[in-house]
Design a protein that fits this description.
Helices cover 38% and strands 12% of the residues. It has 133 residues and is an alpha+beta fold. Strands 1-3-2 form a three-stranded mixed β-sheet.
């Protein structure tokens, strides 16, 4: 989708560089059973809030991957009244757009809840929004 200097990555030191993209997480650690609880997410929320503040002037599109990310983003950004669901697109404050996606977990991909085409469509939508702003 053009968010990196090359189409694939095979290792952490293969030279991949993101372009027009920033990745973060609602929880900054790997919690037990890989499911952060409410207090862990709350403990990390100040980091997420700080990252969003630093990037505020350059953010055009926010993609949340999964309900945890969606809820965390809405909470720290004081965004109310939105519903979680795959491929939901919401205009939010300061000419930004929020795109909601299912998380690309093994459970979601193996069951077809999230297909490869659904995943691609999310990033194509983001690229279109960025190019048109």
């Amino acid at each position: 989708m053009g968010f990196a200097n090359k189409p694939t990555s095979i290792s952490k030191d293969d030279g991949l560089i993101l372009k027009d993209a920033y990745l973060t997480a609602a929880a900054k650690c790997a919690p037990p059973q890989n499911k952060p609880n409410t207090s862990e997410i709350l403990n990390c929320s100040q980091y997420l809030k700080s990252e969003i503040k630093i990037l505020d002037n350059t953010i055009k599109v926010i993609i949340t991957l999964g309900r945890i990310a969606f809820d965390a983003y809405c909470n720290v950004s004081h965004v109310k009244g939105l519903k979680f669901g795959h491929n939901k697109v919401y205009p939010i404050c300061n000419d930004k757009t929020l795109i909601v996606s299912y998380h690309p977990s093994r459970r979601n991909t193996n069951t077809g809840t999230l297909t490869w085409q659904m995943w691609i469509n999310i990033f194509e939508a983001a690229r279109l929004i960025i190019n048109n702003k």
